[in-house]
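Exam revision sheet. Question 4 asks you to relate a sequence to its structure. Input first:
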Amino acid sequence: MFVKAGRHLLGAVVACAAFVVQGVVIYAGLLACAVVADADTGGPLAGPFLVLLAGVVGVVLVPLLFLPASVIAEMAAKKGRLVAKWLVASAVAGALAMVYVFLATVATGMGIAHSLLASLLGALTVLAPTALCVSVPHGALKLMPSTPRAVHE
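Answer key, structure tokens:
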């Protein structure tokens, strides 16, 4: 049981790190657009703040989104097929992200069209971290020494 929890904890940490990497990539893209358009770059703390914000979002989404998605994927793919786990976890995480973002945008007073667009972007944003959150525990299980598989599950 502790081995399985450790594998999933490692997957959650990697999913949080993926959000930090996404924050760096988004900041680099925004900075490039600002330089090309000769606009304000946001100051010296814009990059670190955006990366910190992305990390906080990743930490918040682990129990709200990645944990339910990976648990449902584990239950749905009993035989341990990685592709089936990816598909199920991506569908669950995408649906949960769409609901969370839609509720947040409606609560802040955005229009329905903007809320739908934001929820679609939210679903796309969680696909890579979800794939990592599912792949890391699966890969950790494959890398463990050859002992009976039932011991690790």
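Marking note for examiners. DSSP finds six helices and no strands in the chain.
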